[in-house]
Each structure stands twice: as C-alpha cells, then as structure tokens.
Design goal:
Shape: globular
Radius of gyration: 21 Å
Helix content: 40-55%
Largest sheet: 7 strands, parallel
Distance between the termini: 9 Å
CATH superfamily of the largest domain: Glycogen Phosphorylase B
Order of helices and strands: EHHEHEHEHEHEHEHEHEHEHEHEHEHHH
Number of helices: 16
Low-confidence stretches: none
Strand order of the largest sheet: 3-2-1-4-5-6-7
Number of strands: 13
Strand content: 15-25%
CATH topology of the largest domain: Rossmann fold
Length: 383
C-alpha cells in the first residue's frame, strides 16, 4: 500500500508521528509525509520516508494561504494515487478529508489530536468548530480520537457516525523516557551545563511559546512565589505564525524576572532529569505529550483541570490539577510540591507507573496499523 500522512508542518511528522511512519515503512508499504517544508524533512528522508512539500501550508490564520495549500494538496492527490490518506491537525484535517474523498483516495482517516474548541469556550466558537468537524468527518472512513472526553463528545453530539469513531489514546517512548536509563550523573551534568545549583528546585515547562500553554500564568506564579529556591525553565520553539505566540518583549520581561528560556531542544529526556516539578498550565489540550513524557520520567506534574490534561494526571496521585488561567492556584501548587520532597518523589513514582500502564506509544501504533489493515480489507487494497 501507499500511505500518506498530512500535517501542517514537518515537525509534527518528525516528533509526533515518527513511530507510525516507521511502522508503515517496516511493514514494507510506501510511506509519504505531506506538510510545509522545513528543517526536519532531511531526517524523514534519511529514514526512508518520502516527503512532499505544501509550500503554502501555515499554522497561522491565513485563509488565502489555506486555499493555496488545499489546491496544492489536490494536485498531489491526483498525481500520487495514494491508497490511504491519514490527516492530522485542524486545518489539513478539514480540507484533507474532503479533498481525499473527492479525489477518490480509497481510504481516508483522521486523527483528532484535540478539538479546537472546549465545552468552556463561547457558543459561537463551539458551533463553528463542531459544525466543521461534523462535515469533515462525513468524508472519512475512520476518526481516531486521542482523548476519551472527545470520544464521548463526538458520540453525544454526533460529530461523526458512531461506527467510524475509535478511541486511539496517546503515548510516548517509554524506553527513551525512562529515569532508570539516565543515571544521576546526567542530572548533575545538565544542571552544571545550565548553571543551576544542586539545591535549587527546578520547575519546567515544555511546549511551544504560545499563550494557550499557560506561559503567562507560569510567569505570574513565579512572581507570586518570589522565592530564590526556584528556577523556572521554559523549553520549546517560538511560534510566530500563531496569534497568541509570545513576543520578544514578552520573553524579555520574563527573563528579567529570572525565567530561563532554552528554545527548541531535541534532548528533552536529559532536561527532564534536571527538573523537580513539571508544569503545563494549558488552556486547551488534546492529550499532552510533554506531560506524559514528564510522568514517564517520574516527575510530579502540575497541569490544568482541562480535557486531556485530566487523562495524564490523577489529582493527588501523580500530580496536581489547578483551574485554567489561575496563576495563584498554580503558585500554591508549586509551593506545595516545592516544600515536600517526599511528596514529589511519591507522585513521581506513581507517574511512572501510570505511564507504563496508559501511555505506551506502541499501543497507539498498533491501533493505527490495525485500522489500516481493516480499511485495506474492506476496500480490497492488499492484492
């Protein structure tokens, strides 16, 4: 079979979907990634995966660019004749499903990484997002939904025909993100590299530099705590295409308050060893990968009481849940864990157990491959 994965940008293919692409390749099928061109394409191609660029694809709100990207995709679909088109992300997930069906791709499926609206959003936004999702899902053969809460929402609002709704879950590489793999010397080495004393309590956040990840609340929590015991690390790339991307002025003000920004890093497994507390005060998540990585690394996790986040953290067991957009509650949660090393350790150990039970990416890959085989059987694609 010839299978394509469609995303907005190439970093998604490399860091969110790479194990699925490897599984397709290892099965002996042809795998193609379609996205905006970028720095991660070379790694995909070196791993035996072909990449087709959509020059107009962008993460930002740009209807004209989106129309151009859709037109580019249409030409690709007509030329390549894929057996299966697997779409991701809000915008390519919308136009990709529709164009895939119109172009007569035999199998079209979509992964819902998190609906772009939550039950707490204003009605107008929910109405638009849910309506578009309901329309697009009628053009697919399967909807693989990461969050169990989104599964229930899809069923309750009939956003897709029930036989097409499948719970996918989410996972991470439990071998890479395993604290037993990295000795204590790594923690000491990373802290030395960053100039952090051994007795400091390091609070980390890994995620794109956008407001919806809760960076503003983290900065305010640091000001509330005003305690030199703590070091705050922010790890992740800037995202200037997004309307809520942090500006240079935002970052400079935070740096003046002592916040450390490490930028985009590919060694986050090492960086987790230097942390004592992981926090992700997001406004909206699908099923947050960074929080799962931190849990797998035996870190206590503080996140918001929001969809997806609640699936990573069981309140009081492997971390703490705080209200969305509440810097005071976030500061109090950080102080609670900062003042109690035994609690941090016990929650971290429970986080690792929870990760081993619920966050294994091998199970996600298995479900995806089973879906391909089911579609191949139904549509007689394997000959």
């Amino acid at each position: 079979m010839k299978i394509a994965h469609l995303t907005t940008v190439d970093i998604s293919l490399r860091y969110l979907l790479f194990p699925q692409l490897e599984a397709i390749r290892d099965e002996g099928w042809e795998v193609v990634g379609i996205s905006a061109p970028g720095p991660w394409v070379a790694e995909l191609e070196s791993a035996g995966m072909r990449h087709i660029p959509l020059q107009s694809s962008t993460r930002g709100m740009d209807p004209l660019a989106d129309l151009k990207a859709a037109a580019e995709l249409w030409r690709v679909l007509r030329r390549e004749r894929f057996d299966i088109l697997h779409t991701h992300n809000p915008k390519p997930g919308l136009y990709g499903r529709v164009l895939g069906r119109i172009a007569r791709v035999p199998g079209v499926l979509n992964t819902v990484h998190g609906l772009y609206a939550t039950p707490d959003d204003r009605f107008a936004k929910r109405a638009v997002v849910y309506t578009l999702e309901a329309i697009a899902s009628r053009f697919s053969d399967a909807e693989l939904i990461q969050s169990s809460e989104d599964v229930e929402l899809f069923k309750r609002l009939r956003l897709a025909p029930r036989p097409r709704i499948w719970h996918l879950g989410n996972g991470v590489d439990l071998e890479r993100f395993d604290p037993q793999r990295l000795p204590d010397s790594v923690r000491n080495s990373v802290r030395a590299e960053l100039g952090i004393a051994p007795d400091k309590i390091v609070v980390g956040l890994v995620g794109r530099l956008v407001a919806e990840k809760g960076y503003g609340e983290l900065f305010e929590a640091a000001r509330i705590l005003d305690d030199d015991r703590y070091v705050f690390l922010c790890v992740g790339p800037s995202d200037p295409d997004k309307s809520d991307g942090l500006s240079e002025a935002d970052i400079q003000r935070a740096e003046q308050d002592g916040i450390r920004f490490l930028g985009m890093r590919t060694d986050v497994d090492r960086l987790y060893t230097a942390m004592d507390i992981f926090t992700l005060p997001s406004y909206r998540e699908g099923f947050p990968r960074a929080a799962m990585e931190a849990a797998a690394m035996a870190l206590p996790v503080i996140t918001t009481d929001a969809r997806g986040c609640r699936e990573v953290v069981a309140e009081g067991e492997n971390g703490l849940l705080v209200p969305v957009a509440d810097a005071s509650a976030l500061a109090a949660a950080i102080a609670k864990l900062g003042d109690n090393a035994d609690l941090r350790n016990s929650m971290g150990e429970e986080g690792r157990r929870r990760a081993e039970k619920h966050f294994d990416e091998r199970q996600v890959v298995k479900t995806v491959m089973e879906t391909y085989r089911r579609l191949a059987s139904e549509k007689d694609l394997l000959k």
